[in-house]
Amino acid sequence: MKLKKILALLAASVLTLGLFAGCGEETKETGAAGGDSSKPLSGKHYVIALSASFKNFESVTVDEEGNETYEGLDIDFIEQLSKDLGFTYEISNMQFSGLIGALQSGRADMVISGMTATDERRKNVDFSIGYIQARDAFLVKKGSGITTVDDLTGKKIGCSTGTSYEDMARRVPNAQVSTFDGQPAVLQELLNGRIDAMCTDGSLIDGFMKQYDEIDGFMVPVDSSLSEGVAKEFAIAFPKDSELKKVFDEEIQTLKDNGTMDQIIVKWLGEAYIGE
Locate the Ionotropic glutamate receptor L-glutamate and glycine-binding domain: which residues (predicted)? Predict the structure, then answer.
C-alpha cells in the first residue's frame, strides 16, 4: 500500500514538472506556428530584434503585470512569415542603434524593424529583398515658414540615431543635425522647440499632424537631391552569409505577388501609401 502511494506521488511530481518546464524562460512574444512539417522552417525558433519606437511599424504597450503587447505593420508581417514558413519566434526589443550589433554578436537571428537596406549597413549584414517602399518626410512646427526642402538650409534638424534619415538630414546645406534614440525622442525635441524640423518616414506625418495641432509636415520629392543614393526599401537584416536569406526572399516575393503585403500596408498606412 505504501509503495502505491509513493508511486502515485512520483507520478504527480513528474506531471507537475512537465507543466512548469520552461516557465523561467523569458520571451517577449512567441509566434504560434503550427507543427506542419511541410513548411520550410517548421520546428525552428528565432530571435527577432526590433526597436518598438516606430509608430505604425512597431510599438509596444505594457500592462499592469508587466506583460508586453507588440503591434504594427512589422508585427503583422512577422506573424505572416511565421505562419507561412512554420517557425516560432521571440522578440528582442532594443534601441535602433543597437540592432546591427545584436546580429553581429549572435544575440538575434534577424532584424525586422523598418530598416532600410543602405550600402553602409550592407558592409556588416545581408538584407532580404524589400518588403515595402520607403518614403521620406519632414515634420515642422506650424508657422515656422518651413514648407519645402529648400527652407531647411541652415536649420536645426533632428532624426533617429543610425537611420537613413540621418544620412538625408546631413545633406541639407549648413544644417545643424542632432540625433536621438527613437522617433518619440525626436518628436519631443520638435514639440519643445529645440529643433526646427524632424526627418522621418512619410508613413508617419498624417498621424502626427492629426495628433498634434501644432505640427505640420511635407514629403521629400522623389527627385530631390536629398534622396539621391538613399535606400528606398525596408528589408529584413540577417547576419552575413545567413542561410535564411533565400527562404525569406522567396516568401516576401510570394506575399507581394498574392497581395498579402499590400493588405498589411493598407491596414497600417492607408490606401494612399501604396497608391502613390
Answer: 53-105
CA 14 to chain centre: 41
pLDDT of residue 23: 32
Using CB atoms within 10 A of its CB, is residue 52 exposed (0-12), middle (13-18) or buried (19+)? buried
Amino acid at 27: T
The 3-state DSSP class for residue 25 equals coil
117: Cα within 13 Å, side-chain hemisphere: 16
Any idea how long the chain is?
A: 276
Helix (H) or strand (E) holding 234: strand 233-234
Q: Is 210 helix (H, G, I), strand (E, B) or coil?
A: helix
Confidence of residue 38 (pLDDT cuts 50, 70, 90): confident
**Burial (CB count <10 Å: 0-12, 13-18, 19+), residue 54:** buried
Residue with grid cell 506650424, as numbered in its chain: 142
- 109 with 46: CB under 8 angstroms? yes
pTM of the model as a whole: 0.69
Identify the H or E element spanning 120: helix 119-122
The pLDDT tens digits for 81-108 are: 999 999 999 999 999 999 999 999 999 9
CA 219, 220, 224 angle in degrees (round to 5)? 155
User: In which region does residue 104 sit, left (phi positive, over 0), alpha (psi from -120 to 50) or beta (all else)?
Assistant: alpha
Which amino acid, residue 55? Answer: K
Long-range contacts of 5-9 (CB under 8 A, 24+ apart): none
Mean pLDDT of the chain: 86
